[in-house]
Amino acid sequence: MADFFDVTWASQGEFSAIVSCILENSNIKEQRYVFSKSVSFRAPSTRRIRIWLTAIVCGFLPLTACVKEITACPASGVTLQVLGSGGPIADDGRASSGYLVWVNGTSRFLIDAGGGVFLRFAEAGGSFSELDAIGISHFHADHSADLIALLKSGNFANRERSLPISGPAGDGPFPGLHDYLNSLLNKDTGAYAYLNGYLDGSGNLPKLEQTEIDPDTNKTVTVFSDADSDTRIYAMNVPHGIVPAIAYRIQIGDKSIVFASDQNGSSEAFLNFANDASVLVMHMPVPEDVSGVGRALHAPPSVIGKIAAKTNAEVLVLSHFMARSLNNFADNLAFVQSEFDGPVIVANDLDCIAVGN
Ligand SMILES: [Zn+2]
Q1: Mean pLDDT across the chain, nearest whole number?
Q2: Where do the structural domains in the chain lie, given as residue ranges?
Q3: Distance from C-alpha of 112 to C-alpha of 305, rounded to nearest angstrom
Q4: What CATH number matches the domain at 78-354, 3.30.565.10, 2.170.150.70, 3.60.15.10, 3.20.20.150?
Q5: How far is CA 110 from its chain centroid?
Q6: How far is the CA of 112 from the centre of ligand 1 (A)?
Q7: pTM for the complete prediction?
């Protein structure tokens, strides 16, 4: 049971706290909706049973711990876990952008750290010590605001090995990775100067090994490689209005996850970059009739579908929703599926999505 739960203690007689614990666990979201040509739903199963076991344990053993569930992905294979499926507005109960990639039960790669990802990382059971690399797609707050919170948390992890981190170079009003981290961590001017050791490895903090991706190129850059596990992470610039933004491809053996990031879908080079992905994650914050600035920033649903079809995605994951794309969602989904006839998963926070066979 320790694999599934973390622990908050309830003292004898605190029955109301125990009831709260049970109710809280019972409210955990269960649904994953998988849309393809036929629509299917994953019904509550073993997880629901675990929740009721929790209730029984809490009810009969008030002297022991009342437990809170961790949303555990499978302990084997490659799994994409959605940490945040929402956009920049705090109106839908979804965290902003964030994804965790599990490899045989190890939380190895984090892509994006928008608001709420700090909490979801914990709820997923992620480990700062296990992370092999972090990729930030761009420096809009909904993709990067919780990075410092995760670094602070990592301060308690007793991690010694350095941590690769990548992000865009700066342009116009947007900082690059180096300037962003410097604004937070510089020992003289940083807002969180007390965590300065992340820049140079001092103070028993792991050094952040930084890689900036030039916004002016469409070249693919390798930002991480590990021969032992046959793993590489590739990055390339994608068009997101005036905002330097990076797509990532994590390749583990013959399995691959492509994180398209926020983009307007106009890059031909991205089609090669994303080709034959086991899982293609596309962001859908806007509806089909988007125009103006919204269209300069984001791809509408039909363009998302075209990209998935052109790149021969094995599975398309839609994420990064906002109210404007969740309203009339069935219509927006239909626009995607008018172009792409493969399986489509609509992401919810903490979903676990198997990668490859
Ligand atoms: Zn965004």
Answers
A1: 86
A2: 5-69, 78-354
A3: 23
A4: 3.60.15.10
A5: 7
A6: 10
A7: 0.83
